[in-house]
Amino acid sequence: MYRFFCRQLAFYAQYHRDPRNCVTHYLGMPMLFVAAILPLQAARIAVDGYVLPLGMLLTLPAIIGWIVLDLGVGVTLAFLLCPLLAISELVVRTGSSLLLWTSVTVLFVVGWSFQFLGHAVFERRRPAFADDRKP
Length: 135
Hints:
5 helices
């Protein structure tokens, strides 16, 4: 599994060589995560007497999986996702349904715009997921 993981990262790295493209991803990827997790944070699940946000419950297995694959990456991911989950929870608790769905829409559109801008303008190639070439 480790070799497969390293091959995938090397393939991905070929599409992210320009530092400006990396910056667009540093901004856009958290926006896309929050856009995806916001509606899930609004849904609550009762677990052993606690009412927990579904977004957090669904994110935990991914974090654990990354920790199993690579401890450093997994811990870094957990460290970076905690503030994003907290921001999502803040929007859910303090805002209205209109604020939630407006936030989701704006974050989704702006986040994807950053991704495509980075690849089109700085890398001058399609994103890895849109390329027919496989690792």
